[in-house]
């Protein structure tokens, strides 16, 4: 759906003071009008009795509101995407993370370690995620971890590096799906707190 407002044009609230939206000397607020009055304003055969300032106020208010909706839709990827998100939310397929799980400011390049962390949380494993000098690590109660580095030791893009006591895969770059399988395989061990 094409945008009807311009991202560069905002409604200046100060301009309303120059508009005199009055009928019979009485200032009116079109939003407070009865349905019959609004119907005449919008669909009536003439606009006799209604000054142009009433229509300007109405257009300015509607434009401002529409622009706000279009700005939100644009942030979400457009109206189709926003509609898709609303449907998913209605169906219970949208999860909003609690603030404590959103406190780290992740660059986009660490999507695998974030996804692994959320996978572990969904499995019920009490793990933490922490910032490293050059990446992030998911830490488990038993002292094991998965790390994702960028640009230094172990910096294989799109992969994480396990250190969980798996003789075959420890300290090698593995993809997200294999990392999830390793978490499932070692779940019992990872959950044990050795502190």
Keywords:
195 residues; alpha+beta; 2 domains; 4-stranded antiparallel β-sheet; two-stranded antiparallel ribbon; 6 helices; 6 strands; 36% helix; 11% strand; rod-shaped
Order of helices and strands: EEHHHHEEEEHH
Roughly what fraction of the amino acids lie in strands? Answer: 5-15%
Strand order of the largest sheet: 3-4-5-6
Q: Whole-number average pLDDT?
A: 78
The geometry reads as rod-shaped
Structural class: alpha+beta
Spatial separation of the terminal alpha carbons? 56 Å
Radius of gyration: 28 Å
Count of runs of 4 or more consecutive helical residues: 6
The helical percent reads 25-40%
Q: Work out the count of structural domains.
A: 2
Q: What low-confidence regions span 5 or more consecutive residues with pLDDT below 50?
A: none
Strand count, sense and barrel status of the largest sheet are: 4 strands, antiparallel
- Please give the number of β-strands: 6
